[in-house]
Structures are given as C-alpha cells and as structure tokens.
Amino acid sequence: PTNPTIGDTLRFSTNYVIEFVTAPATKIQEAIHKHYDEEIDQPEQLDESIDDLLSDMDDDHIDVAEDPEEVVDSTVTERDSHIITLVNRILLDAYNKGASDIHFEPGLGRQPMQIRYRTDGFCKVAHQVSQNYKKAIISRLKIISKLDIAERRRPQSGKIQLRSGRTKIEYRVEITPTTGGLEDAVLRVLASSKPLKLEEMGFSDQSRKSFEEMLGKPHGIILCVGPTGSGKTTTLHSALGHINHPDRKIWTAEDPVEITQPGLRQVQVVPKIGFSFPEALRSFLRADPDVIMIGEMRDAETAKIAIEASLTGHQVFSTLHTNSAAETVVRLIEMGMDPFNFANALIGILAQRLARRICSKCKESYQPEPDELNELIQTYGAALYQKHGLPMNASEVTLYRSEGCDHCGGTGYRGRVSIHELLVASEPIRKGIKANMSLEDLRDLAIDEGMRTLKMDGIDKILAGHTDLEQILRVCM
Predict the structure, then answer these.
(1) Is the separation of the CB atoms in 348 and 217 below 8 Å?
(2) What three-state secondary structure class fits 66?
(3) How far apart are CA 147 and CA 50, in angstroms?
(4) What is the pLDDT of residue 25?
(5) How many CB atoms lie under 10 A from the CB of residue 335?
(6) Which element (helix H / strand E) includes 259?
(7) Degrees (nearest 5) of the Cα angle 290, 293, 297?
(8) What is the pLDDT at residue 29?
(9) What stretches of 36-154 show up as alpha helix (H) in DSSP?
(10) CA-to-CA dists, residue 4 to 1, 7, 20, 439, 448, angstroms
(11) What's phi and psi for 22, nearest 5 deg?
(12) pLDDT at residue 43, as a whole number
C-alpha cells in the first residue's frame, strides 16, 4: 500500500479512485473467493465441520411469498460468507470421502435441500440444508462455474477448479431446471490422478496375460466397453502407461482429460467450437502417431476413421457404451462398419464393470448352504463351472459377508472391484465377424475360444472373497 507506482497503475487500469486499506489475511482471501473464483484454494484441514457450519446458519431471515410453494431468500445471497464457506467445504468433503458425484437437490416449498454423494456407485444423503439457502447455493455454484445466474429456464454446463494443498480437483457441473422454478445441480468429481499399473487393475492372471499380449501388437484397434462409470478411461490409461515408452508417439483425444501422464500428447476436444473427436483424429493422423487413443466412439464417423487408422499401421484405443464384448461387434456393424475391415483391424474387446467390494475390516467367512452355492453355479453356467474345475460341494467353498462398521459407514462395502470380459480377436472370431455371426453365436464362439464372461469373472471374484452375488447380479446382465 505504500508503493505509489502500484496505486498509479491501478488507477490508470481501472479508471477508479483507489484507496488502500489494511485487512486481515482471512478477509483478503474471502474477497478473492468472492470475485475471482475460477480456481478455489482450500486448506488441507477443515477447521469447522459442515454439520457445525449448518447448525450456525439460523432461520431468522426468511420471507414467505404469497405462493406457498415458493420461498424467497430475502437476505441470503450467493455472496454470503456462510454460503461461500459451505459450498467450498461440501466440494472438498465429497472429494475426501471418495465421491464420484455430488447432487444438490432443492425441495419444494419449505422442504430442505438434500445433498447426496455417489460413492462406490451408490447415492446416499450426506447433508440436509435449510430451504432458506437452496437458491443461494445454486447461485453460488453458478458463479464459480462461470454460468449465468439469471438463467433458470435452460440447462447449463460448466466446471469448477479447486486446489487443496498440492491436489488439483476439477468438477464438471450440470445445472438442470426442475419443477417449482427450482434447479438441481450435479457435479462430477474429476480429481487429477496417475494411471494405475495393469497389476493393480484386478485382472485375473489369464485375462492380464491375454491383455498384455494384445498391447504388444504393432497395429490394430483395442476397445474398452461398458456403461458410464465402469472404469473404461482408467483401464485405457493403464494400458497406455504399459506401452508408454520414449520410442512411441502417443496422442489422446478426451472429453475431459481426467488422467494425465508424462509422454502422452493429450488433447481436450471442444465440440462447441467444432473440435470434435473426428477432427482430433484427422489431426493426429497428420502428426506422425504410433498410438492413438480416442476417449469415446460417439458416432459412425469417429468409428470409421479409427478403424481406418488401425489398418494403416497405427495402434488405436477407444471406448464404447455397450453391455458386452460380443454386443460391441454387432453394434459397430449396425453403425455401418465394414465387417471385413473391422475384423481385420480388431485386436480385442474388453468389457468391464465395477462391483462393490466387501469391507475388509468387518468381513467374515462362512460356508454357504447348498442352495446358495447352486445359485452361484447356475449364474456361472453349470457345464462351464464344472469344466473350469471350480468347487462343486458347499463344504469346499468359503464365502464372505459383512455386517457393517465405522470403516465402511455401516454399509458392509468399501471400494470397488473390477469385473472383466476379454474377447481376443482370434482367427475363428475374425471369420465369425466377416460372416455376420449373430450375437449369441459370436458369444458362444468366444467362450469356446477361452473368453470368461462378466458373470464368470464375477463368480471368480466372489470365490476369492472380494464381493458377493448380490453385487455381481446388480452390475452384470
């Protein structure tokens, strides 16, 4: 404040009368949060819990409108220090608890706002906030996402960046108008992370060996398929990490870039300006690639260019939203892909799911009843269960269950285990694709060639003590 040059520069730049004052560091930080929120800095430890903060936020300043369904927040605004602190702490709390998504759900009328976290694939209420603050919280989220706070009729998409210590966290924000003039906000947590090694991905020994052999092929296409949130991006980055060497040029096109690793040239596509996956692919093919990863095959154009690239000496990785490995073949041919080109290009398809893992702190072993073991056998497929040499007598089988504890929040589950189905493009499989084999026949052929289905791999994970049948049936069709 004693430097006159800084004062003159600010007056000239802003055309304002500048008056310097002193203030505590906390007040300065609060002002920065209010006006420059593109990236929020957070302390690593929270001085006050969210529940304590909510208890401090009283209900003294509520005005009820003539319409009993509408509550007007007369003095609570998105700039209120309580709102700023509350929102920031919820974002960090969700990240610390391993949530993949945060749901802000305002209730109608005098009903409170529910805040739910999705953890290990399940939504659970984390906090309830007084109805006084519901609009202010949504407005606050809009401000730090650089969205229009006045627009309440259309959906809006944005992002928030938060830094906690050395950890940078990004949240993808979706605002959706709901009944009663309210708006829901859903935030996807995209924490910067490092790729896992293949040994950490939960593959069976057989599947990992086959997958590593696929990664050793000089050219062709490898697909990772499954629903949203099944870990496809994590698996692809694990695969890229396995082949990431200085003698290879690896390009990736992603939306968004969730995992970064040195040596990869990673590109974020921006469909709004016309920079789509096909555009990125065309650019990569002119940029001397050895390996190309496309975040998602969203349309026939992307699939066609990817297959052509894999036939011209490049190794190509991508993802698709299909339920099984065999279904992926049928889907791509229905999208207009030439069966001969696709069969020649294909190296393999990995379908996967994430099932809840039994809590390691409170799980206990037990011997199943014959009926329970029979259900496992039928789910696996009785003939294949016996063929693969799995135990047929209940006395030979040990399963696990859990009652719930503090470690798992009373749910009995903590973390997730991956379930895989790996179709290797052997010569018989390629002939089947070229012959337009039906989905059922192609699946049976793949099993004959050594493929373990998702349910088979899931039963193996049950027998290994990682999960239970309820969770496998929930994620596997």
Answers:
(1) no
(2) coil
(3) 25
(4) 75
(5) 16
(6) none
(7) 135
(8) 67
(9) 50-56, 81-96, 134-144
(10) 8, 5, 10, 77, 82
(11) -95, 150
(12) 45
What pLDDT was estimated at residue 28?
A: 75
Q: What is the pLDDT of residue 262?
A: 92
**Residue 13 burial (C-beta neighbours within 10 Å; 0-12, 13-18, 19+):** exposed
Question: Residues 114, 186: contact at Cβ < 8 Å?
Answer: no
CA quadruple 151, 157, 158, 162: dihedral, nearest 10? 110
Side by side, the strands of the sheet bearing 113-119 are 39-42, 156-164, 167-178, 182-191, 101-105, 113-119, 122-129
Rounded to whole angstroms, how far apart are CA atoms 164 and 93? 11
Cα–chain-centroid distance for residue 309? 27
* CB-based burial, 367-380: b 16+ in 10 Å, e otherwise: ebeeeebeebbebb
Residues across the chain: 477
Q: How far is Cα 454 from Cα 475, in angstroms, rounded to an integer?
A: 9
Contact 108, 70 (CB under 8 A): no
The answer to whether 258 and 233 have CB atoms below 8 angstroms apart is: yes
- C-alpha angle with apex 230: 326 to 436, nearest 5 degrees? 10
- Name the phi and psi angles at 326, rounded to 5: -65, -40
User: According to the model, what pLDDT value does residue 45 have?
Assistant: 43
Q: 232 and 216 in contact (C-beta within 8 Å)? A: no
pLDDT score, position 55: 67
Are 324 and 443 in contact by the 8 Å Cβ rule? The answer is yes
- Host H or E run for residue 295: none
**DSSP assignment of 7-51:** HHHHHHHH-S--------HHHHHHHHHHH--SEEEE-SS-SS-HH
Domains with residue ranges and CATH for the chain? 1-38 (no CATH), 48-58+77-191 (3.30.450.90), 198-476 (3.40.50.300)
Distance CA 460, CA 455 (A): 9
pLDDT at 85: 86
Whole-angstrom Cα Rg for the chain: 27
Q: 69-118 pLDDT, tens per residue?
A: 444 444 455 557 788 888 989 999 999 888 999 999 999 988 999 999 99
Model pLDDT, residue 66: 34
List, for the chain, all residue ranges whose pLDDT scores fall below the cut of 70: 1-2, 9-16, 29-48, 51, 53, 55-79, 191-193
At residue 105, the pLDDT reads: 96
Strands 71-72 and 250-254 come out as unpaired
Q: Which two tokens stand for residue 97?
A: 């608890």
